[in-house]
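Run log, item B.
One chain of 374 residues. Sequence copied directly from the ordering sheet:
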Amino acid sequence: MTPRRIPFLALTPHEDAAAVRSAIDRVIARGWFILGPEVEAFESEFAAAMGARYSIGVGNGTDAIALILRALGIGPGDEVITSPLSAAYSALAVMMAGARPVFADVDPNRLTLDPDQAGRAVGPRTRAILPVHLYGQAADMAAIEAVAARHNLAVVEDCCQAHLATAAGRPVGTIGIAGAFSFYPTKNLGALGDGGAIVTNDRALAERLARLRNGGQTDRYRHAEPGVNSRLDEMQAAVLRARLPFLRQWTARRRALAARYRAALGGSQADEIAVPPEMDAGHVYHLFVVKVRGAGARDDLQSRLAAAGVETLIHYPVTISRQPALAGEHPAECPIAQRVCDEILSLPLHPALADEDVDAVATAVRKDAIKCGR
């Protein structure tokens, strides 16, 4: 009998379908597609939802990081300390700004930037720390803030996987000078294409970012400084406005599914299959990951789950510091992050996932552990 397929993601609209369709029709009927009323309204609504004073819509999350750094005057000759365990775009954004990414290893439990390692990585050219709130779990922001304060560094938050996450009760993106968000379709708040936003409580910084994302213009055809073309378009802004009211219930659903996974896998797991701990109640579970230890064990588990109809992915198979694109930056080795990259496996988790799907995945994981003698 063919096993029931459990896909990793479901990207088509569900309960938000009518609102999304209405938003698209509204933009088409208006005939205004770039930097219009939808973007302006979304910026206001998103800032309020994230607990920030200002929001600036941009083309994607990578641009959001790079633009923050540029707006802070960080560029050639400067260094930014960041995590090696993330999508490579976080470090590539540092390079886009002209600065050099410096990698410090991750905390083995939280899987985000280790504050002690970040402190050891500070050098005479360091200008900022870029923590990545990974898989929906916030970095240890209090400790990172302490490191930054000792060395007079800016803190720029990569919140691309952490919409509505909090760190010890504080909304991510509002703890440092600014936070970068992505609306890539797979994100907790996803568009129907690319999109991003920056949040900040600094008015002067917000005003400069609004100029930089639009070619450095102060008004039409007057460019006060060199900027870029990175504008959230009206269509994506309208879709995001339609979906934003669903974000809290989607986040609650993600947390409920994660708790179900933890209950099913936590009590019976052996040393070879482990669920990373929830280090902060503000975790929003962009991804639900397990660690699979032992030579070839992860590949074996992934193959067995595929045979059982369960689609899984690996986030991420290679540390950023080992990516060929970063070789010219002479990155430091980060052994903890590398070990995590060799062990991590992402299980299906999204708001449309049914409870029985989580139970089926957990059962398949447990059966695999038994088959492998674990």
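Observations after the first pass:
- Residues 370-374 have pLDDT under 50 and may be disordered.
- DSSP finds twelve helices and 14 strands in the chain.
Flagged for discussion on Thursday.
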